[in-house]
Amino acid sequence: MSEVTYADLKFQDSSKIKCTQNFDQVGVKAPPAPSHGWHQRDLALILLCLLLMTGLGVLGSIFHKTSKIETEKFKNLQNLKEELQRNVSLQLTYNMDSFKKIRNLSITLQEMATKLCYELCRKEPEHKCKPCPKEWIWHEDHCYKLFKKYDTWQKSNMTCSAHNASLLKIKSKSVLEFIKSQNIYNYWLGLSPRKTYTKYKNLDEIFISSDWFTRNTNELNDGMFCGYTRNTKYVFYASCTSSKDTVCEKLANPVKIESTLMNEEPDGSM
Asked: Which of 48, 119, 133, 189 is the most buried (most CB within 10 A)?
């Protein structure tokens, strides 16, 4: 019973081999061989990736070159802009300097023409260059006219208004000296009418006063007092309805430079 025969061993080995083959066939399967279609798809994907990388490289190179060119253009434009701004600034400065020189020259010429015209008018009172109307007295930048007729203060004021002028106002020492030189006596002045009577005021002090006529004087009566010149030292006051002579003033026209060089109007002949 304990003896193992060769036939038994052979039978057992055959059984083991058969079981091993069956396990291989049922339990573990070998992987299938890769198909030919998958190889082509992988190659296509690889080629596509290579093309995309190449395209990106080309686009990056183009972008870099374009960016460099545009940056250079921008720098050139910026330099051109700064140069133009400098040129404009220099031109404006030059123009301003030229304008100042022309203005100063114009002022100088105007002053010279005025002085020349004044000297010409001293010799010929109605010279063409005179900036005042005929029969008006020229002093500095004003024209003056004396009306030898007795009127109330209100009518005298209306007379001046009719000549685009106003009653005389003595508001500077220069005008005061001019009035004294003309010996203007018994003329209404452009002083504000007063409700209280004042006999007189010093002429040298009144020219800086705020009494010079600025108010409405449509209704004047015997109870109002107006100033007038009586001598070269004082301003006296009298009823505004009394009668005095009239002295008017208005701004002189600018002296024309060409008018100081010609005494007569050109006749147009060659």
From this structure: 189
pLDDT tens across 31-80, in order?
Answer: 555 556 677 887 888 888 888 888 888 888 888 888 888 888 888 888 88
For 125-168, what is each residue's pLDDT tens digit?
888 889 999 999 999 999 999 998 889 999 999 999 999 999 99
Q: What are the φ/ψ torsions at residue 14 (nearest 5 degrees)?
A: -65, -35
Residues 192/211, Cβ–Cβ less than 8 Å: yes
Q: Tokens 């133009």 — which residue?
A: 84
Cβ neighbours of residue 197 under 8 Å, at least 6 residues apart?
A: 225, 237
Q: Between vectors from CA 211 to CA 210 and to CA 216, what angle results, nearest 5°?
A: 115
How much is the pTM?
0.60
CA distance 224 to 191: 12
